[in-house]
Amino acid sequence: MSSDTSSRELTVIVGSRDATSTLRECVSALVASCAGIDAEILVVEATDPDAAKRSADGNPSVRVIAMPAGSLVPALWGRGLREARGRVVAFTIGQCVVSDGWAGALLSGIRAGAAGVGGPLELRRGSSATARATFYLRYAAWLDMPAGPAREIAGDNAAYDHAALRDARTDAGESFWEVEAHARFRRLGRTLEVRPEAVAWFTDATGLPEMAARRFAHGRHSGAFRVRSGVRPRWQVVLGAPLVPFVLLLRVGRRVAQAPGHSLGFLTSLGAFLVLASAWAAGEAVGGITSGASARGALRAA
Questions:
Q1: Which of 19, 193, 208, 226 shows the greatest Cβ crowding within 10 Å of its Cβ?
Q2: 82 vs 20 pLDDT, higher one
Q3: Between the CA of residue 179 and those of 33, 237, 257, 272, 277, what are the distances in Å?
Q4: What is the gyration radius of the CA atoms in the chain, in angstroms?
Q5: Structure confidence by residue, pLDDT tens digits, 149-176
Q6: 122 has which bridge partners?
Q7: How far apart are CA 96 and CA 81, in angstroms?
């Protein structure tokens, strides 16, 4: 998006990839949460534009943007960000269903001065083993999130001051990667905050092979970013990759043990968890080796 003055209070960008079974409920919950707010909802769809249009159900605040099949969520978010007209820009995915107070809680945090505001993610009851493994691998750090300042927030349930995104130059690329945005905010002295009322519930019907391919692609970007940004030297990223699945297992296991009601769901998804963690580790190693390639090239290779 250009630097023109934003014309809406809030833009919600929904990255929708293989979310046909949950997208209608996702959009319906967002519409309800945004009631009374000058908001627009952009559903950026990479699999089934017709299903996305049906989820909009004729609501004038919902717009569907089609992207090539196979586009990763950061590319979908980046496309939506270039279209966003909101003073505040929120991000989620088609597999998340938000609470009624979600939009208001995120806006309240931005008004209080935070550059970014996140909320907790919870696991939907009845989710498959792959969905549970995906949830714990990606979101264990945000179980039982305390309110207040935070170093990181979950990009799948977050909102940002649009002007802060422009200042950090995170709205100019083809993809939006929240970890990169957060690193730039820290360098600029901007803060992130958690609002526990901004809850989103996660579920996913994606099969294990496809989810492993996604984890590999995201891991590849992470490995390349770590090397390019100087967070880790190349040799550490590459040689440390075989240990990553076990480190993740221990780290996530400790967090789950401290979160009431999650232990059984985690234990019964361990097989899928290790497959996804291994795919991430392999991606990081490849990303570290090929870190001279652009993020665009990494996305194409995925």
A1: 19
A2: 82
A3: 26, 17, 26, 25, 18
A4: 18
A5: 999 999 999 999 999 999 887 665 688 9
A6: 201
A7: 19
